[in-house]
Design a protein that fits this description.
Strand order of the largest sheet: 3-2-1-4-5-6
CATH class of the largest domain: Alpha Beta
Structural class: alpha/beta
Order of helices and strands: EHEHEHEHEHEHHHEHEHEHEHEEHHHH
Largest sheet: 6 strands, parallel
Strand content: 15-25%
Radius of gyration: 20 Å
Length: 389
């Protein structure tokens, strides 16, 4: 029986991995070894490990690594603690394959710890670019330490090969987020409003703003400008999802919670919505504002207009639903939201296609994890020379 360890550290990442985890868990020829870490284990970020337990997946290991701080030093120390915890987990579990998704520091620690164990690593959502965040560096480092690759688009597949990875182990099946969109039961608008305890007679807007980790000491100013712009839209009830555990994330959380208290009845914030409520919100919202990858990856499937602020997602492929605002300035953000909610702009999105795929990908990923040969050719990587015209 092939043992497959899957690492998850955040609510959003777990949502993307859900159907892959389920596929491994349900296959009698595979053994799921679920390793939970990071924000999942933190009460501050909603203790989302409870959602995993509620889904019925057995947790093989819990790797505590987050410090109660978001300084540069705390993040670096957390990575070190993570490597120690993952090493102990791998020693006990002895997985045949390690599966990771994305570009966060928890995942870099998990993959780095796997190298001495000569363990094949399968990386999902590699080859992408987010030039405004240190995740850019983490992602490509993870790619070079991985052996099997599941990029979300053909352009990202080419980038991974350009980095010297063997095309025989680069499989483009689309983003696993499509599985949630096609398989999860969405709430109708009334059901969603009741679940979130928000008014039914208002339009809904969703806001997710993360720290731009390569911009030092700008998080407070940026979120202040963004929140001020929301005041100009009294017909929209704003729902803010709080940021991840990144450098300066707590500044954003503090300012958002203070803003919510002062504007009761017009805005609410949530540490975690869960996949069903979150995707239902994207379905029924009139606009999304912030700098989350969700605006580029999931929102196009709902025809949802997105105001993408700053360069956190710079370099990532986007559809026609995205309006880019170069800096987090109140006037610029307000103007972009006005354009996004206009009937004229929405009319341009009728025939939009999601560049991250239009069918479920997780079953194909699980199938490849099950059948890929785990031989010396996979483990002994050579730099693959290629020239794209």
């Amino acid at each position: 029986m092939r043992k497959i360890a899957v690492v998850t550290g955040t609510r959003a990442e777990y949502g993307l991995l859900y159907w892959i985890i389920k596929g491994i868990h349900d296959d009698p020829e595979l053994e799921l070894q679920l390793v939970v870490t990071g924000m999942h284990l933190s009460p501050e970020f909603g203790l989302t490990v409870k959602e995993i337990e509620k889904d019925g997946f057995p947790i093989a290991e819990r790797v505590e690594m987050l410090l109660s701080s978001d300084t540069e030093s705390a993040i670096a120390i957390s990575m070190g603690l993570g490597m120690i915890g993952f090493a102990r987990a791998y020693e006990r579990l002895t997985p045949d394959i390690l599966v990771v998704l994305g570009d966060r520091f928890e995942i870099l620690a998990a993959v780095s710890a796997a190298v001495p164990f000569r363990m094949p690593v399968a990386h999902i959502h590699g080859g992408e670019s987010t030039e405004g965040a240190m995740d850019e560096l983490f992602r490509h480092a993870i790619t070079k330490m991985s052996h099997i690759h599941f990029p979300a688009t053909e352009d990202y597949r080419k980038r991974i090969i350009q980095m010297g990875e063997n095309p025989d182990y680069v499989f483009c099946f689309g983003s696993p987020c499509m599985d949630n969109i096609y398989k999860l039961s969405m709430m109708d608008r009334r059901e969603l409003c009741l679940a979130l305890d928000v008014p039914e007679n208002k339009k809904l807007g969703v806001v997710t703003y993360h720290p731009v980790t390569l911009e030092k000491d700008k998080a407070g100013l940026n979120i202040s400008e963004l929140l001020e712009s929301l005041k100009d839209f009294s017909d929209i009830f704003w729902i803010i999802t709080l940021p991840n555990a990144d450098t300066d994330g707590r500044i954003i959380v503090e300012m958002v919670e203070n803003f919510v208290r002062k504007n009761h009845g017009r805005i609410k914030s949530f540490a975690s919505l869960g996949q069903s409520r979150y995707l239902s919100l994207l379905k029924h919202a009139v606009v999304m504002v912030g700098n989350s990858s969700s605006g580029l990856i999931e929102a196009p499937s709902f025809g949802l207009p997105v105001v993408n602020i700053g360069d956190r997602q710079h370099g990532r492929i986007r559809a026609e639903n995205v309006i880019d605002v170069q800096e987090c300035n109140k006037r610029l953000v307000t103007d972009a939201i006005k354009r996004a909610v206009s009937m004229k702009f929405k009319g341009t999105l009728n025939d939009m296609r999601n560049p991250y795929g239009d069918e479920p990908a997780s079953e194909k990923i699980v199938g490849k994890l099950k059948t890929v040969p785990l031989d010396k050719y996979l483990l002994k990587k050579r730099f693959y020379e290629v020239c794209f015209e």
